[in-house]
């Protein structure tokens, strides 16, 4: 039997895109062809063309990004299709993987395995000085060989081969660890409080300063369609996903969050070349 696989992801600043691309290359080396697509370019119904779904997303506030979950909610129901899930994160994943697996199980997907990949924190980088240790570590980390992704690819390839040989997808169902409920609730409470506070400080304070040359990159690249030109000025509405793409991608480094990001670092993904469109 022939099998087609889809790696479906969202990436604000390039980390998840990098991991998705790495995984695709690794799978190709194991003779598994996987189509790569961002949720920004693939209609939910197009996922039906594939037999196996591999999804990837960044962690926001110990959870999957809300808009990502909303997208997943619109996926059509399927009959017993295999599912692999990965996230990229700086520190704390919360129940994000379990949450996504649960949602997609309800649509007929069978979660097989998952992976969390530690990456530089897209929420922290634009507030850090270019010389800071954190930035230097992010810039000099070895992204060329990522053992955990190699192993994940091997698990996916093994599942693909088993299904091809006629094994029932349901027999490959894996367990998603939920951790200790009390500890989870405690951490999640602290996280929600911290990010809730940060959100209030960050969201209303996006602005383009007088370095802006009106190239409109931010308008084109914002996944939330939150940026537009009003009366000749770059304006931010209230639909921001806080993905940090605009601030990192602006060629003039004109986009700021208040004054806290002035002359600070801008992140363009592990290879320094992330271009979302
Ligand atoms: C708004 C926001 C919230 C975040 N919250 C968390 C978090 O709770 N835990 C964590 O480990 N990383 C968190 N991060 C860091 C990202 O998950 C991480 O850097 C990820 O790799 C970014 O992926 P991307 O470059 O594909 O957007 C957050 C980032 C942003 C922008």
UniProtKB/TrEMBL annotation:
Flavodoxin-like domain mapped to chain residues: 5-139
Name of the protein: Ferredoxin
Annotated GO MF terms: 4 iron, 4 sulfur cluster binding; electron transfer activity; FMN binding; metal ion binding; oxidoreductase activity, acting on NAD(P)H
SUPFAM superfamilies, per the entry: 4Fe-4S ferredoxins, Flavoproteins
Keyword Iron-sulfur carried by entry: yes
Physiological role: Ferredoxins are iron-sulfur proteins that transfer electrons in a wide variety of metabolic reactions.
Source domain of life: Bacteria
InterPro entries associated with the record: 4Fe4S_Fe-S-bd, 4Fe4S_Fe_S_CS, EFR1-like, Flavodoxin/NO_synth, Flavodoxin_CS, Flavodoxin_dom, Flavoprotein-like_sf, PSI_iron-sulfur_center
Names of the cofactor(s): [4Fe-4S] cluster
Residues covered by the 4Fe-4S ferredoxin-type domain: 202-232, 237-260
Keyword presence, Iron: yes
Keywords for the protein's UniProt record, in alphabetical order: 4Fe-4S, Iron, Iron-sulfur, Metal-binding
